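Fig. S4 source data, part A: sequence.
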Amino acid sequence: MKYYIIFFVITIFSSLIGGVFGASSEAPALLEITDVESTEGTISATITIENNSRNAIKEGYLGIYLLPLVGSEISTLVGWVALPSLKIQDRITVPFTGVVPPGMVGGTYHITALVTTNSGLASPQLMNAPMQEVPVQRGESATEMTALPATDRAHVTQDVPNYQITGITIPLSGSLHPGTKITPSVSVINLGEDATEQTPVSVMLLLGNQVLYPEKATIPSIAAGKSAEVQLSYKIPDNIYLGAYSIRGLVNPYGTIPETNEGDNTFTSPGIYFIADNWIEERIEAGTCDRCGS
């Protein structure tokens, strides 16, 4: 097992002032990543974040990224964790598992993390973020539907929920394109008991094995025997491969909420979604594509 520890202070960028850290720009949050391991197409870690600022941290996301060691500033999202609101001096530890994107070349990369608000992770500012090296195996084919490992909870002593996704509907006006936003309706049911804490439930979406950027990706806690349908929002990565994909949803993807059964959190939507380049549509709209339809 590879073991890495990252202690760093998250620099408060101007875009985050009044967001994650409130109005103050003096005191940061402390982030710690331990037990980083990359094996068989997944990257796992334990992540701890402590609010040692002078303000409460609003609900947001912690995105985990890979960057090449040299020659490129392009970051690749390998997964994310939904963070609850944190009062001053609050500390939370969550397990993390991310999928190595399809087609990613094996080698040594920098791994880093960034806290952001519900405005999304579409343009992460990682220039000043600390980096740690991690070996990564080559990404698997985008059409393979390998489920993320569930957190091991062998001893569940109290009544807990059991969340399942029952449907994913994506409104489409045409083909999906790299970099565009989708707003799916996701239906979730709780077949277990009431949760002891009213913690928001994360929903991860993947095209093949490519994680989508969360912009609004949590739903309120659901009572026992009840269901909810919520419209969420995700961004398709700019560097996704063109082609045909199945879409897969995972509820409570990192096991941060104890459940009676974490082996039934995956839902694969029927049908195939096509990721296409939008240059033809742009030329048609501009009136410069006389023979695009021929």
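Fig. S4 source data, part B ends here. Residues 108 and 135 are 4 Å apart (CA to CA).
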